[in-house]
Amino acid sequence: MNTNTILLILLSLVLAGGLSFYQYFYKNKNYNKVNILLALLRFISVFSILLLMINPIISRKTYETSKTPLPIVVDNSQSISELKQENISKELSQKLSENSQLKDKYDVQLFSFDDDFYTDKPIDYKGKQSNIHKVAQNLKQLYRNQNFPIVLLSDGNQTIGNDYVYSFPQNNQVYPLILGDTTSFLDVKINQLNVNKYAFLKNKFPVEVFLQYNGNKTINTTFSIQQGNNTIHKQTVSFSANKKAQEISVLLNADKVGVHTYKAIISTSETEKNKYNNVKNFAVEVIDQRSEIALISAINHPDLGAIKRAIESNVQRKVTFLKPQQIKSLQDYNVLILYQPNGEFKSILEQNKNLQINTFVITGLSTDYDILNQYQDQLNFRMSGQKEDFTAEFNPQFNSFALDNIGFEQFPPLENSFGNIDITGNVNTLLQSQIRNIKTENPLLAFAENGMKRNAYLFGENIWKWRVESHVKTKSFEQFDVFMDKIIQFLASNASKKALIVTHESFYNSGENIEISAQYFNKNYEFEENAQLTIQLKNKKTNATKIFDFLKGNGEYKVNLEGLDPGNYSFLVKENNSKATYSSNFEVLDFEIEKQSVNPDVSRLSQFATNTNGKIFYPSQVDQLINELLKKESFPAIQKEIVKKSPLIDLIGLLILLAITLTTEWFVRKYNGML
């Protein structure tokens, strides 16, 4: 309390005492014990009222001991059960989490992980993937700005995610408790197989295979690729103590349209502990259509390279750079990208009047908007010579095709001329433009349809910065490249819009997230928010049928079909109100990545522990691990002083005391005839 408050309280004492004295003793020579009682009650009442009016803040100090966190993180992936370590893992995690000495020193908490991180999920060792990197991400969020040790019970075989060796900060000492038999067994395996999802009819497609050998003696193996019951490739591969890895490249024929499944096999006469990793299934979809795209520009700009790389990330697309004067005929192209069209584009626009090839117009500071006004009637441009920076605002109601918001609002601004863009045709806006977070009436990215003709418009240059920013945030160009591919896919198709659009892959690996998305449009081609979509899934081999409901997302409906057994499946998607349907099929390939490992990855776990100033331990050394944690002096318990401040008016006891004194004084006066 400050000085003013103390002075006010002292003044209240004087006032309360003076008022009580004046009431019951002043000019009253015959006072008795009743007067003394009443004076005391009056003093308490008045002083309480004055205290409540002053309402001083009362501070109370308490002390709390905060222990250092000790997360014990258990690998819940299927590889632990494949290595016959589930019982050992349970015993070790229980022994660590229930140790009384550790509990006295640390705040011990038990977690688990597979492809995700869990705080309270039962441990069953059925996870289809391992992501140790996600452990680092979640622990950083749970214990921000704290130094603490981590015990990790794992085999160290990560199947997805960034490299965990460098994911954990050095102030978090990690102690891997290695699960699995470290004895070296002879093993040959297909370590990795690379193949494109698509191949073109009458072409050859490459298959790149990385083979690995664990052993010391020289052996000969047979590598083959089978399609059905036919062996389409076969060769002998030798390994030795000095030659433990081989790379095989094979060209296969794409001679029939459709999805084709293959099996890569490596075999040996030697005895192996794990033969599951000797086989890897893969599939390729052979297509007979390729989109030829002309990227036409009269100027040089970094956008051109970024656009070409993004589009050609889909092997079905081929982009050709052209100057306006180089083009004699447009008939060889499915889509035209007109980058900052100016007067030199006049002949191209004249040709396209008759050909009606779908176009993607990208404007910028070098664009001639009079030319655009002359050759299209979907938008009217009234632009000035002033330059402006425009940022994006995503429109979740966009319904021309399914697209997720990839963080458009955080992307760098695009440069374009300042002015008004009036929509005069059937235009659907995906991104609205903003100037310094102030919304404008102008679109930034829009799509137009007129019968079978489709156009896209991007109003701004420097989209290459978007691709770079997307890579910085996600460590991959994939999100941006998919965004560009969706634009090209929209333009490359001249089919009229369907009421029910379903997006899915032709094949999936078992253990993958099998997600199918759908959009349903009403008669006005507006996204229907209240559609009732179901999918009927049928296993072609067993004829077993299941029905799932789609869940509504952002501008689309999704269903997750996890846990499907390998095999061929047909499905029927149905909108229950309109009875609109879509049918197709896909294949789940037999490949479980968690069954590939024979031993724990001791070398990476050792490097991991070294990077964080930790130390590796084995199950037989669990007592040594406990002693190591107990003797650590760098993680002491911290005593915190907690000051709680509360105003006096919040004290219910003072209000009750005031009520009692006032009531008692009234009754005493009434009883003694003093009222």
Q: What is the straight-line distance between the termini?
A: 40 Å
Helix content: 25-40%
Shape: extended
* Helix-strand category: alpha/beta
Q: What is the residue-averaged pLDDT? A: 88
Poorly predicted regions are none
Number of helices: 14
The total of beta strands comes to 33
Strand content: 35-45%
Report on this model:
With 675 residues, the protein is an alpha/beta fold. It contains 14 helices and 33 strands. The strands form 7 sheets. It has a 9-stranded mixed β-sheet, with helices on one face. Helix 2 packs antiparallel against helix 14, helix 7 (302-311) crosses helix 11 and helix 10 packs across helix 11 (478-492). The longest helix is centred in the first third of the chain and has 22 residues, at 3-24. The protein is extended. The mean pLDDT is 88.
Helices and strands in order:
Elements: H1 3-24, H2 33-54, E1 57-66, E2 68-75, H3 78-82, H4 86-97, H5 100-105, E3 106-113, E4 117-118, H6 132-142, E5 150-154, E6 174-178, E7 187-195, E8 198-200, E9 203-214, E10 219-227, E11 230-239, E12 245-254, E13 258-267, E14 279-287, E15 291-297, H7 302-311, E16 317-322, E17 335-339, H8 346-355, E18 358-363, H9 369-375, E19 379-394, E20 414-423, E21 427-435, E22 438-450, E23 453-459, H10 464-474, H11 478-492, E24 500-503, E25 507-509, E26 515-520, E27 533-539, E28 545-549, E29 551-552, E30 557-560, E31 567-575, E32 581-589, H12 602-611, H13 622-630, E33 638-647, H14 652-671
Parallel strand pairs: 2-3, 2-5, 5-6, 8-14, 15-16, 15-17, 17-18, 18-23, 25-32
Antiparallel strand pairs: 1-33, 3-4, 7-9, 9-12, 10-11, 10-13, 13-14, 19-20, 19-21, 21-22, 22-23, 24-26, 26-30, 27-28, 27-31, 29-30, 31-32
Helix pairs in contact: 1-2, 2-14, 7-11, 10-11
